[in-house]
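yo, Serine/threonine protein kinase is done. seq:
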Amino acid sequence: MSANENHTPNALPAGYRFNEFEIKEVIGGGGFGIVYRAWDHQLERTIAIKEYMPVSLAVRAADLSLELRGERFQKLFNAGRNSFIQEARLLARFNHPGLLHVLRFWEENGTAYMGTLYYSGMTLKEWQITSPESISEAWIRRLLPPLFGAINTIHAAGYLHRDISLDNIQIQENQLPVLLDFGSARKEIGNLSDETEIMLKPGFAPIEQYSEEGEVEQGSWTDIYALGAVLHNLITGHAPPVSVVRCIEDNYQPLVERQPEGYSLPLLHAIDCALEMKPADRPQSIDAFASLIDLPVSDVEALMTTLPVATEAAITPEPIAVAVPEPQVLAVNHAAAAIEPVTPRNVRRLSPGLVAAAAIAILAVVVVVWKANRHTEAPPVAAAPSASAPVTNNPVAGSAPAMATVYLRLQAGENIVLNGEAKDVKPASSGFASLNLAAGNYRIEVHNGSQVLSQSLTIDKPGTWLINPGNP
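structure:
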């Protein structure tokens, strides 16, 4: 299959040779790389080749080398390529069946490549879509030991993965999982980008990954949060609420309260612990996380007696999962963010420095890539909130029921005008005000003396929004 037949722009054509390696077809890729199936003529076996190809920075020239879109991208391109090479070197050090095995890496065509073993099967994300009926506690428990071993191997060597998600776990035909690449190149580009793009997967990244470097220490607990989010997604069908949103209002509802049918309390309790907001409250190692899963049921039931009784809002139907294209780029912009709403529990208070970082990061939270969707008619949509969830303001648009909750930062002396009508809305202790809106078109203005910031929204589906009004 040629690159054109596979509809992959900038891909190398079938038949292209790297010495003994011959490209056969494109098998995957995203905004930062292309993955090929290739044939090793020397050892007569199929391998995979990953090419560093950041489409926002470079294009394929006529001679098949990469050509920068502009000289200003040179620093970003080089940083990403160096990170790609360092990741290849790191993965080549490991020899664990649950980790991507790098055979070799090289530089050619003005970019870099890594050759790896070829893994059959599909990602956890694909598995969840195609075989949801096969996912059960027994299936998850079979999946975890090799996955634990792979992550623990990384941690024991003094490294973190920082990108564990459904997309980065491959389920082979023999049912054994393989933890795929670290995504180092795109994260390095994100760190250096003038657009301050944060290369994180919403729902899977803990709060410390949104903080300024060194403000909140990252460690094994960082990957454990992401792994907890993976398990939460497998069980409920959707990721937990975005961590920076939880800094404003913690909408996470513990699984031990929800008690999804067919899952034991020890497993649910372990996932809840992994998804604690404060790093110190999570299991501090893979071994500690694994031991929680085997916690005696009696101990967890004793814990349950200290939890509040589930309300009507806590037992509403599960939200619908939102499909998001990969890679998910969270960019600072004026678009709204879609999150998974569940009954609010409490507002978490973090250190002043982290609250400031979260306030900045909250503006960057865009679950659907804004750049990829700015030409669409409707804004990003999240799952439906519970009809019985408490509201802060009366619904607008007459007697129509509220369909969406909109959050925006509101400072002292600022006032909100909605469709030309002043609203008596006050910020909560978190510094964010909220509006409950029915379906319709809205223009939200924030007035501060003579300065006016505005944001237009179309509400046509249920959801929770975070907006950052800008200059009209």
